[in-house]
Amino acid sequence: MDPKEKSFLSEISDISGQKLLKVDKVGYGRNGYVEQRNHIIKLSISNLKLDYIPESIENLTELNALHMGGNYLTKISDPILTLKNLELLEAWENRIESIPKDIGVLDKVWRLHLAGNKITELPFSIGNLPMKKLYLKHNNVGYVPESIGNWIHLDVFGLPINNLPTLPETISGWKNVRVISLWQNKLKALPDVQLNVKELRINNNFFTEVPPRVYEIKQLRKLWLNSNQLTEIPEISSGHLQNLWFLDLQNNLLSSLPKSLQYLPNLRDLRLSGNLFESYPSWLDSLKGCKVDTTTHRRQIQQPDYIGVKKYVKYLEDNHLPIEHLVEIKQFQRFLENEKGFSRIVKAKANDVKDYIAQGAITAFTLRSLYLYFSWLQDYPLRQIIKKELENFAKIMSINLQDVSRLAKESLAVTSLLSLDVTEEETPSIVSRPQIIEHKIEGEEWEYFVARLEITSLDALKILLKSSRPKIALEKFANSQNRLPETLIESINEIALECIGDLLLDQETYQITEKAYEQKLREISL
Q1: Longest dimension (CA), the chain
Q2: Are 339 and 412 in contact (CB under 8 A)?
């Protein structure tokens, strides 16, 4: 090995207290280095509590894959930008606040995994990368440049749980993208351009209407619109959404559905709970091919996910209060779904309300809406505890919660928790900063992935590993479990994205997407 590269390994060992060994493969929880022709070509230094990377990393001139997730890094250092052969860069779950403005010099990097950091924007030069897979989940990104439209080979655009209010029209250049994941951002609209995507996840945003161009996506197979503020779904023109088989409309403000849904030839999974339907549309019975059967449809429509939403709407109307109160309650439910994993507001606890209020800025109107709702829930056991927490915070903010007659006139001025000039000892616990509920992978990401799978999904993976005809085998197994094979794949891929940062199964062939993934599953005796 080159003496300079050997010196770098010694530095890392001294800093971390762990010796890096030569291995056959790296990543996915396995630290070490892969050597080829006396040069290090792959390096994994994850979960070593590193707060900086030695400058001598610039001597790894042949390095093509760098894994440094789960450390305490605050930046991608300049020496890393000298690694001209780098193709894969991972630095998930660090403390990185920005991407270097010159990141574009790494003109071979096609996979960038920086989830779980503090990044606020993407630099213009990032458009120079031959990007195929971008993962920036759980950052603070509020801006992306027009140059991202240069990613003509983009496969996965993963930017959920950020602060993005808009996208540039240049994304029309994404001709081969398979997944666009933008759930839990601040989107109200999409660019008025033709998109070409198979999976579009824009749930948990602020859409009040379905972006019209969505209907024109010919290859669209899965569409997540749940947990927005949709009041209606327009009729779907003949020839549109012909390949759509999954549609999630849960937790909106819908009171009716377009009859044209029944003419979508491939719709097989329709989700409707948590809306404001007054009656069951009989034409839903005609969705013979849809896995969600008549009984389930009726239950979803007639029994919304959280307590008495229809009664609450009537309460608002009877008291001449604006329906916007319900929107605020829906936003709280959205917080529970994404931060806590809950799907029903009835599972809320006092600490959940604390975290919601402490997550940043909150309007007086929102605080009043929550108070009004939990006051109205007469049969909810924890309502008195939660009301007390809301009252404590209202005192700090000088908000009169009892004056219900003023609710409709309340100003939308935002009062930030962060601006309060108080100490932790002087304030009730409700003003404490929320703890981000997210996993911290220590060591084997793959073991964590397998542990997260439900038994049916685990059995499905075992079948796929053993079968020479995976599609036939999975369809047969899914049928025996009264499940759709597509739904099984979806559930596996969701967990895979979270744990290993990539989709594991191809949604069309049902095959494992990478040979290395298959080998890893076999290694852990799946």
Answers
A1: 80
A2: no
Q: Which residues pair with 159 in a beta bridge?
A: none
Predicted structure pTM score: 0.69
The residue type found at 403 is D
Strand partners, 424: none
Angle subtended at Cα 513 by Cα 507 and Cα 518, rounded to the nearest 5 degrees: 125
Superfamily of the domain at 1-96: Ribonuclease Inhibitor (3.80.10.10)
Q: Which helix (H) or strand (E) holds 157?
A: strand 156-158
3-state secondary structure at position 499: helix
pLDDT tens, the chain, 526 aa long: 888 989 999 999 999 888 888 888 887 668 899 999 889 999 999 989 999 999 999 999 999 999 999 899 999 999 999 999 999 999 998 999 999 999 999 999 999 999 989 999 999 999 999 999 999 988 999 999 999 999 999 999 999 989 999 999 999 999 889 999 998 899 999 999 998 899 999 998 889 999 999 999 999 999 999 888 898 999 999 889 999 988 989 878 888 889 888 888 888 888 887 777 777 777 777 776 666 555 666 666 655 444 456 667 777 777 777 767 777 777 777 677 665 544 455 566 777 777 777 766 677 777 778 887 777 776 566 667 777 778 887 777 777 776 644 544 443 332 222 222 222 223 333 332 222 223 333 335 677 688 778 788 888 888 888 888 888 888 888 878 767 777 778 778 878 876 776 778 876 778 887 777 888 888 776 6
Strands 32-36 and 39-44: antiparallel
**Domain ranges for the chain:** 1-96, 319-431, 445-523
Q: Check: CB of residue 252 under 8 Å from CB of residue 230.
A: yes
b/e sequence 351-390, b meaning 16+ C-beta within 10 Å: bbbbbbbbeeebbbbbbbbbbbbbbebeebebbeebbebb
136 contacts 158 by C-beta, under 8 angstroms: yes
